[in-house]
Design goal:
heterodimer; A: 65 residues; 3 helices; B: 201 residues; mainly alpha; Rna Polymerase Sigma Factor, Chain: A; Arc Repressor Mutant, subunit A; 2 domains; 9 helices; 65% helix; globular
Chain lengths: 65, 201
């Protein structure tokens, strides 16, 4: 069973590389039992989405959506 | 009068001016130098106008202009990264790593106080200007070289192979730096935005 610390690295790295099958299984197993790491993963994916979306801008008129 | 829809598909000083704020944010966050960012945005606008006839209309003007800006930012980053060596990342990482280690008990599970919280529906925050002020402040609090790696990955959307090649760092090191940056950023947001009545940073 991976520790939360180890899992935090996998959660970050899954955004940068394809995890191996074993890593993926270990990650999912841990997440199924750990609320903190589940929250962490949601936070990390929110961060990525937020950066890519950026602040609402002046020129985002409904016309060009 | 030109409708907003057709305006959005033509490269004019007006369409460029409307993107200026977004361009400045993009460049300033990555270069950490507002004068350089101003110059770069200005150059990008001039280049875009000069090449306006090359804009094929396959993407939006904004996408096209940001491609030019992005390339300018990448060139500037490459130039600056030449003066950074592996030790600089380590030095920056030390205090971030000890702060991170403090989140865990001896068995490497979260301490109760540090366990990541449920941010509810954080998408709502993205529509709030105040959130972005906090967000940008949190990005700016990341140490410079660590932030640069993170920005290359998330803003410039380069893959980690390209980043480690450009910066001459190992893939493992690149992943460690990205992990540091993400944790620094999320801890800062958790303390300053996602917690009621949190102390200022």
């Amino acid at each position: 069973m991976l520790s939360c610390k180890e899992v935090s690295y996998l959660i970050s790295e899954e955004q940068d590389r394809d995890l191996g099958i074993v890593e993926r299984m270990q990650l999912e197993l841990h997440l199924a039992m750990c609320k903190g790491c589940t929250n962490l993963r949601k936070q990390m994916s929110f961060l990525r989405g937020a950066i890519r979306r950026g602040p609402p801008s002046d020129d985002d008129t409904p016309a060009d959506r | 009068m030109t409708s907003p829809a057709s305006l959005a598909h033509t490269v004019t000083p007006e369409t460029l001016a409307a993107m200026r704020t977004d361009m400045l944010r993009f460049a300033t966050l990555q270069l950490r130098d507002s004068h350089l960012a101003e110059d770069m945005v200005q150059d990008t606008m001039i280049t875009a106008l000069a090449k306006a006839d090359q804009f094929a209309g396959r993407s939006s003007v904004k996408t096209w202009v940001f491609t030019i800006l992005r390339n300018n930012v990448i060139d500037a980053i490459k130039l600056r990264a030449r003066t950074v060596n592996a030790g600089d990342y380590v030095a920056e990482g030390e205090s971030m790593d000890s702060a991170f280690d403090a989140l865990f008990k001896a068995n490497e599970h979260w301490t109760p106080a540090a366990r990541p919280t449920d941010w509810g529906d954080p998408e709502d925050a993205l529509r709030e200007q105040q959130f972005w002020t906090v967000f940008d402040a949190c990005l700016n609090r990341l140490p410079e070289n660590t932030a640069r790696v993170f920005m290359m990955r998330e803003f410039l959307e380069l893959d980690s192979h390209e980043i480690c090649h450009t910066l001459s760092i190992s893939m493992t090191n690149c992943h460690v730096i990205l992990h540091r940056a993400r944790n620094g950023l999320r801890r800062c947001l958790e303390a300053n935005w996602f917690t009621e009545g949190a102390p200022a940073c």
